[in-house]
Amino acid sequence: MTTDDTRSPGLTVALAELQDDLGDLERLLILQDEAARQSLRHLDEDGENLERLADMIPKWQEEVDIFRTLELDGAESFHSNFLAWLLRPEESHGLGDCFLREFLTEIGTARAVRAGTRMSTTVRREQQLELDGDSGRLDICIRNEQAGFLCAVENKVWSPESGDQLAFYRKALKTLYSDYTMHLVFLTPRGDMPENATEWDHWTTLDYSRIRQILDRTIEAKGATVHQDVAAALRQYAITLRRNIVPEVSDDVHELARRIYRKHKKAIDLICDHRDRYEPNYVSEGYHMVDEAVSAHEEWEKGTCKLPYYRFLSADWDQYQVLRFNGFPKSLLHFEIHLTDQGADLSLLFATRGPRDLKRMVFDRVTTDHGMFKGHLPRYSEDKYISLPFGVSLLESSDYKHWWDEERIRQTISCRLDDFAKCQFPEINRIVLNCLEEYRSAKAQSVGGDETKPIA
After folding, report:
1. Distance from CA of residue 406 to its chain's centroid?
2. What is the band of 456 on the pLDDT scale with cuts at 50, 70, 90?
3. Radius of gyration of the chain from Cα atoms?
4. Phi, psi (rounded to 5 degrees) for 6
5. Do β-strands 122-131 and 134-144 pair in parallel, antiparallel, or remain unpaired?
């Protein structure tokens, strides 16, 4: 065995340095752990903002976003088509030149086209441009021949700018419309600058939050004169912009969520980074919720349970010793809930032990013309467990998407179990009690029959 006396000086120094490093690492981990706890504590204490966000989310989720449903919210051509439609004074929207006027005002060119000539403005989509053997298609070209004014709009929703695309459009337009007063607009969700710095002085940047403001001003200006179908389309487009294109600056929910995130970034990142650890255990968590719901009913008693099965009995059966035996599951009859990660189904369970003639009597009575069980029923068996499904699902697969809302899941289980207690349970309980009384009477009349003793 090596002792301190036989160690080389170099090894002693190395071990000492390693010990110091381990000590530093331990202190660092302690500090990090404490910082994480502090961050989570501060997030938990920010109850007012979290409650506000929780109150806002249901309304936000219920809001219809038809363009998102149709998967048009991120399509650049859709936005260009919709804007071109709004910009055309003669279009079917009935807004006249209202949107065009607000748009020109927003980009600082309101005086370029006089009110009397705005209705003659033409708006083209995919304007074909050619120059020196190259070609391209400008997204929107707004032109008023009487005023000698042209506005080019290049729209980029999520796709990047292609090479010297903006420089090409500028030069091609200048060649084609050399006598026009020209205004160039680069429209993006956040008002990005052109990639090529040489174009910065030529293009006005415009972001979609300002498009939404133009839309709001147009709706306000036209008021009740807007056709209801057009008004609905405009509102839907405003929702799409607010929720999908510029949510961080134009949506109350996102704005509050962003503020909470900036304030509690460390805690929220910690939660997100380890979210796999927080995935629910549907079986064990559901078991405890079922236990709470069953315990709320005085007419029931908890039976012998073993995950993933929860069992309970009618309290009325407690006086009948004939149902009981010493081995698992200690009773001939149970109501059984089978919990899985896809649902929780309720059935009537017959054990393999207990008096066979009683088992057969109850089975025949409950399965004959009562319609309380659903689906394919198993055949009677003396030596196998028999499970008769009520067709009652305390949880369905669709409920699991709401599992993070623990109170909602708890309420779902409770309500469905209450329905079973009011509807199916009284009848099945009556049948079983009748069978037990008949069996007890028959045993009392037979020679040597003593049904009060537990059956081994």
Report:
1. 14
2. very low
3. 37
4. -100, -5
5. antiparallel
Long-range contacts formed by 270-277: CB under 8 A, 24+ apart: 270/36, 270/39, 270/40, 271/40
Distance CA 309, CA 296 (A): 19
Could you tell me if 289 and 413 are in contact, meaning their C-beta atoms sit under 8 angstroms apart?
Answer: yes
First to last CA, the chain: 64
Supply the pLDDT for residue 453: 44
> Under 8 Å CB-to-CB from 226, ≥6 apart: which residues?
93, 94, 95, 219, 234
> Can you give the pTM of this predicted structure?
0.49
Residue 268 is predicted with a pLDDT of: 78
Distances (CA, A) of 341 to 61, 390, 397, 399, 446: 26, 19, 8, 10, 49
Strand partners, 135: 130
Angle at 307 between CA 306 and CA 313, to 5 degrees: 50
- Residues 22-45, buried b or exposed e (16+ Cβ, 10 A)? eeeeeeeeeeeeeeeeebbeebee
Which of 170, 158, 239 minimizes the C-alpha distance to 198?
170
**Does the pLDDT at position 164 exceed 90?**
no
Q: How does residue 263 score in pLDDT terms, banded at 50, 70 and 90?
A: confident
Going from the C-alpha of 305 to that of each of 281, 311, 331, 339, 424, the distances in angstroms are 18, 6, 12, 12, 22
Q: Kindly tell me if the per-residue pLDDT of 205 is higher than 50.
A: yes
Burial 215-231 (b: 16+ CB within 10 A, else e): bebbbeebeeebeeebb
What pLDDT score does 354 carry?
Answer: 87
